[in-house]
Specification:
Blueprint: H1 2-11, H2 14-28, E1 46-59, H3 64-78, H4 85-104, E2 108-116, E3 121-126, E4 136-141, E5 145-149, H5 153-156
Antiparallel strand pairs: 1-2, 1-4, 2-3, 4-5
Length: about 160
């Protein structure tokens, strides 16, 4: 009888933690990427329509080599008086590079050449492919830049003096 009670008491504290963790993950899935950034608060916002002229794949810079150098230096300095200096340098470089690579995520992006309907040519760099060549897009610029596909009618008519 006491074994059954002990097993029930051991399993019971795990359930609230499991429910809380699943709820947290479930609620984080409700966050929308279409929300306006907090950095856009009290900012001048410019919106214009443009046609995608060309798309060039690009690669954003990486800070992995610098992180590996700092990790190796930290490994060497933390064990300067032992026989494991080289091993700690390799260990520090590996994990610093690994964590930096994970934090940076995907470094591939796209450079969009846009012909605005007012005649300007604008280049926008984004981390995802949001439109294809020839598509009409709406560009929203504030503290960050967002590009949304839109109806063709927005690019075919001239907006007189906006």
């Amino acid at each position: 009888m006491t074994k059954i009670l002990r097993k029930a008491m051991v399993k019971r504290p795990v359930v609230p933690w499991l429910v809380a963790a699943l709820s947290l993950f479930g609620l984080s899935g409700c966050a929308s990427s279409d929300d306006v950034s907090l950095r856009s608060k009290n900012q001048f916002v410019e919106v214009f329509y443009a046609r995608v002229n060309d798309i060039t794949p690009i690669q954003f810079e990486s800070h992995v080599p610098e992180a590996m150098a700092l990790g190796a230096a930290d490994g060497a300095l933390s064990s300067y008086d032992s026989d494991h200096v080289v091993g700690n340098m390799i260990f520090g470089a590996f994990f610093a590079g690994l964590f930096t690579s994970i934090a940076e995520g995907d470094r591939e992006g796209f450079e969009f050449g846009l012909n605005a309907i007012d005649g300007d040519y604008v280049i926008v760099t984004l981390d995802e492919l949001v439109a294809n060549e020839g598509d009409c897009v709406m560009v929203r610029m504030s503290s960050d830049v967002r590009v949304f596909p839109t109806d063709e009618i927005n690019c075919s008519q001239t907006m007189g003096g906006y």
